[in-house]
Specification:
heterotrimer; A mainly alpha (356); B mainly alpha (294); C alpha/beta (386); A: 356 residues; mainly alpha; three-stranded antiparallel sheet; 72% helix; B: 294 residues; globular; amino-acid transport (chain C); ABC transporter substrate-binding protein (chain C); transport (chain C); Leu-bd (chain C)
Chain lengths: 356, 294, 386
């Protein structure tokens, strides 16, 4: 038992190590001017998607539920925090940003509970479609929201005309036009978004890894492996599934906060089921229940279309083909056997050499 | 009268969802996978018809036949290359993601071949409208054709599955793959046939979709595909009559939502109703309740 | 299994290193100006991005034949595809900078332009042919625009309808999930009253349900509207016109804005459905003046007979306005982006362009000051109204 515990601890440490090592490498490269603009611009979004992928893996990998509405939680986190940043523009930037992160996480967590309670009664594909439905509902409703504020306080309406702001009032959320200029509110903090993002990635890893290795985590995995058996030994299945779902939602909210503040333009149409699916692709490709895999897959797959820009119109086609081939290579039993055989051969020759 | 008129519009929209959902639900029932690329096969089928009629000068009937054959072969190829290697994978999520990859692939291929510009679809099926109550209620010919096609396909599929030998093989594969194999059913061939039929139906769905809403882009299939997926779940995914009922109900709810509540949140209303239905009946309207075993 | 993971990480490492490669290969070139185009080249809105990109190439070729920018040739870099997504637009912007971009023609869509605008402010000269949202160019003094803003289009449409007494009862049908459409709608509604218009129906649809308009059209028909305002792009409008015809609304006048342009070019579209449609747009591909004719001809020759739309025309003008500014500012390709940007921005204020889309001047905010043109579709062609 002790030995396996050590192994998990070691494994967790490797994960932190990879993140920190990547951070150090990037810092050195950027310090010496070897980092292209494209990659510099990708750093914060990469953090966003790594956080999103790790948090989704908690639900898909450890709790065993297929969720297709993860973008919905990111969306809620992004909008609530961006609204807060605009309204509370008097607070100094650093505490304001910390508060924004907390608010994004909290609001997403609340949505996680609200959605989780009904959704987690369902199973399998039905659960998947309902999470997709919630994601689309969130998108659809935010799309008609108009929010502004003036001396009298906050105004909320469903059309620009009925907002009725006083002179000097500021319109923050403009329906389909979204929220713009959030990044400009953080002129001093903006340069540190990448270190902040790395810190949030580490925090996410810390939360998820500790949860998974805790008593609750083992209960969550027991409900995944065999719901009825777990129930029969007295595990409150709904409670533990809800716990995983809520924490996952809160972390997705954090990813949303980072997304909203890094871009100067927040549009709800980006948070559609395609984005949820994109994050799911990272999780599945990286290995269900494998946090390191999620991180690596998120980095590769997010960067891939950007690196393929040289192929112009063919890049999305190539992306699709690469995705299919990688899935087949990574998941097909035949490919796995083939890989195992090749590995054995390589090892075999190595052993022979050593013997000789 | 507006109520009747809206009802008619709802059924018209719903029949389109229904015909797409039929293909979705059949593939799901037998292969146990959500074929996210189904909507894109619909788009491909529509492009084949459009190109055959406008560029190839073919007669509509010939073009439809060509499109059905093309999509059938396409469906079988996709199944063989992208899905069948993953049939024994340790997680059924793997094939779901691959299906998404296939969906991207078809969309981007179509984009490269046909360009991004929306094209108007030519009228292939010309059936006169039916006018009721002194012209107060006009039912479009294509709506009647769609509903009739839906019913024919639904009945045909049910008869096929229940009465013929390959159909019963499909049922067996759906119930228990390993047991079916032991009983001498060729599982691979059966699943391949399921995809062939499902994709052939997609070609017909593509035709009817583009006759009702005559516009075509590489992304035309995506959203109706998702809506039809919702419809299939609504009716109980895997159930053939469920797909038909689910599709029509979804169309009616969407139109009533637009008419009586708000056209801006029609989608939210649709999805909201779906959630309520699933909470009351967790396997959809016609879904089978599978007993869990320890 | 483990080795496989290692292989995966290795691939990742290789991929990362590949991106980190210093980009000196692109930089040192003092002979040509490099101009970037960012817009949707794939995805739902690809026709707009491609229109802009192709027109930029046509214009650049012409300009190079006539002395280039201040005597230097211009090169249009490979298009930066953003799929109309702000996040991808910023990535495309950074990528183009790596490739040596010195001036930006774009972005094409509003949301992307706001995001890129914040990055380009006071750094890289930004000139958008078609981003209509007000905030698209408000981040810096080095950002300019060729098209009308959403509010300007909404207000000018209301004025035009009021002044020409086209109708008093108007209805609107627009895509509420898109910024362009809802921006125009909001401005039109706000300006309706003072122009003597009564909005009897303001109906919306969303991008997720943009095929069936039966309910909205029925409500509009029942509202007794004399004119239907359609501030949407032509692909949606083609379907709306078809369904309005089916619903027996031929006697209701239809009025569109620049997004309506292109409707006659939709493949297989029955142009008789668009008969009598009026639109405010800066450009007509069937216009008979020499300049338009030459442009349409060059564009069609370069792009497999594809007819240029207003996006393409605006882009063509953008390139010529840039040329005028570059000539006046006497910039050279060896200058830093920020210096080019500052010099161009100053020169822009005195540029007067007699372009395809009309006579244009620019204000300090970067807004284009030009008159909209109103057209009516008669016998499948635009006829200019007064």
């Amino acid at each position: 038992m002790k030995k396996t515990m050590n192994k998990t601890v070691k494994n967790n440490m490797i994960n932190y190590g990879i993140v920190i090592a990547l951070f150090v490498i990037v810092q050195i490269l950027s310090g010496t001017g070897h980092l292209s603009r494209l990659l510099t611009g990708l750093l914060v979004p990469l953090c966003v998607y790594v956080i999103a992928a790790i948090s989704l893996n908690l639900v898909v990998g450890f709790s065993g539920e297929l969720s297709l509405g993860h973008a919905g939680f990111m969306c809620v986190g992004a909008y609530s925090s961006a609204l807060f940043s605009h309204i509370a523009s008097d607070i100094p930037q650093v505490p304001r940003f910390i508060l924004a992160i907390l608010i994004g996480a909290a609001v997403a967590a609340v949505f996680g509970v609200i959605i989780g309670i009904p959704v987690l009664r369902l199973r399998g594909d039905y659960l998947a479609i309902v999470t997709l439905a919630f994601g689309e509902i969130i998108k659809n409703l935010i799309n008609i929201l108009y929010i502004g504020f003036d001396e009298k306080g906050l105004h909320v309406a469903t059309s620009a005309a009925s907002l009725k702001l006083e002179a000097g009032g500021k319109q923050i959320l403009k329906g389909a036009l979204g929220i713009s200029g959030t990044g400009a509110l953080y002129k001093d903090v903006k340069h540190y978004f990448f270190p902040i993002g790395i810190f949030l990635v580490l925090l996410t890893l810390f939360i998820v890894q500790n949860l998974v290795n805790s008593r609750s985590g083992r209960a969550i995995m027991a409900t995944r492996d065999n719901r009825i058996a777990a129930e029969s030994v007295g595990i409150d299945v709904t409670k533990f599934k809800l716990l995983a779902f809520t924490i996952s939602a809160a972390l997705a909210g954090v990813a949303g906060v980072l997304y909203a503040h890094n871009l100067s333009m927040l549009k709800v149409s980006g948070f559609d089921y395609n984005m949820s699916i994109l994050i799911l692709v990272y999780v599945v490709l990286g290995g269900i229940g494998n946090l390191r895999g999620s991180m690596i897959a998120a980095i590769i797959l997010y960067a891939l279309p950007e690196l393929l820009r040289g192929f112009a119109n063919y890049r999305m086609l190539i992306y699709a083909i690469v995705l299919i081939v990688m899935m087949l290579f990574n998941w097909a039993p035949a490919a796995r056997n083939w890989r195992a055989r090749v590995m054995e051969k390589i090892k075999g020759t190595k052993n022979k050499k050593e013997a000789a | 009268m507006s109520f009747l008129s809206y009802l008619k519009d709802g059924i018209s929209l719903g029949s389109i969802y229904a015909i797409i959902a039929l293909g979705y639900t059949m593939v799901y029932g037998i292969a146990k996978m959500l074929n996210f690329a189904h909507g894109d096969v619909i788009m491909v089928g529509a492009f084949v018809i459009l190109t055959a009629v406008t560029k190839g000068g073919m007669s509509p009937v010939l073009a439809i036949v060509l499109s059905v054959i093309f999509c059938t072969v396409l469906g079988m190829v996709i199944e063989k290359v992208a899905y069948s290697p993953l049939r024994k994978a340790s997680s059924n999520l793997a094939v779901l993601i691959t299906a998404i990859g296939v969906s991207y692939l078809l969309q981007n291929l179509a984009l490269l071949i046909f360009g991004a510009d929306a094209k108007s679809f030519v009228t292939v099926i010309d059936v006169p409208s039916v006018s009721l109550f002194d012209g107060q209620l006009v039912i479009k010919g294509i709506t009647i054709v769609t509903i009739l096609t839906c019913i024919v396909i639904m009945v045909g599929l049910m008869l096929f599955v229940q009465k013929t030998k390959p159909g019963r093989a499909m049922q067996a594969v759906s119930e228990d793959r390993d047991a079916a194999q032991l009983m001498g059913v060729n599982v691979n061939a059966t699943i391949s046939m399921t995809f062939a039929i499902g994709s052939g139906l997609a070609a017909i769905a593509g035709l009817l979709l583009c006759q009702t809403y005559p516009t075509l882009t590489p992304y035309t299939g995506a959203m109706p595909g998702i809506k039809a997926f919702v419809a299939a779940v609504f009716g109980g995914i895997g159930s053939i009559p469920g797909a038909m009922v689910g599709g029509i109900l979804l169309g009616v709810i969407e139109i009533f939502g637009k008419a009586y509540i708000s056209s801006q949140v029609a989608d939210a209303i649709c999805f909201g109703v779906l959630i309520v239905v699933l909470l009351v009946k967790p396997t959809g309207l016609f879904g089978k309740n599978i007993q869990e075993k320890v | 299994m483990k080795t496989w993971k290692k292989a995966l990480s290795l691939t990742a490492a290789v991929a990362m290193t590949a991106t980190m490669m210093p980009v000196s290969a692109f930089a040192a070139d003092d002979e040509t100006f490099k101009i970037g185009v960012i817009g949707p080249m794939t995805g739902d809105n690809a026709q707009y991005g491609l229109g802009v990109y192709h027109a930029a190439q046509v214009a650049a070729e012409e300009i190079n034949a006539n002395g280039g920018f201040n005597g230097y040739n211009v090169e249009i870099l490979d298009a930066g595809d953003d799929q109309a997504d702000p996040e991808k637009a910023v990535n495309a912007y950074n990528d183009l900078l790596d490739k040596g971009m010195q001036m930006l023609c774009g972005t094409v869509t509003s949301g992307s332009c706001i995001a890129v605008g914040a990055e380009a402010a006071e750094d890289t000269f930004l000139f958008t042919p078609s981003a209509t949202a007000v905030d698209s160019i408000t981040s810096g003094s080095n950002e300019f625009r060729m098209c009308f803003t959403d509010p300007a289009q909404g207000t000018k449409s209301a004025q035009y309808i009021g002044e020409h007494a086209l109708a008093t009862k108007v209805a609107i049908l627009y895509d509420s999930s898109a910024d362009y459409n809802s921006g125009i709608n909001d401005a039109f509604v706000a300006a309706a009253d003072e122009n003597g218009l009564e909005v009897v129906a303001d109906e919306a649809y969303t991008a997720d349900s943009n095929t069936d308009f039966s309910v909205q059209l029925k409500k509009i028909k029942d509202s007794g509207a004399e004119l239907l305002f359609l501030p949407n792009y032509y692909a949606d409008n083609a379907l709306i016109l078809q369904q309005a015809h089916d619903a027996g609304m031929d006697d209701v006048k239809k009025f569109g804005v620049d997004g309506m342009d292109g409707i006659l070019g939709v493949e297989n579209f029955d142009t008789s459905l668009a008969e009598g449609v009026m639109l405010l747009t800066p450009f007509s591909a069937t216009a008979e003046d020499e300049k338009s004719q030459a442009f349409v001809k060059a564009y069609e020759a370069a792009n497999k007979d594809e007819v240029p739309n207003q996006f393409a025309a605006d882009t063509y003008d953008v390139l010529y306005a840039m040329k005028a500014a570059a000539d006046a500012a006497e910039i050279t390709p060896d200058m830093e982006n920020a210096d080019i940007s500052a010099a161009m921005s100053e020169a822009m204020l005195s540029v007067e362009l007699d372009g395809l889309t009309g006579k244009a001047k620019w204000t300090e905010d970067g807004e284009c000051d030009k008159e909209p043109k109103a057209f009516e579709i008669q016998d499948g062609a635009y006829v200019e109204m007064d």
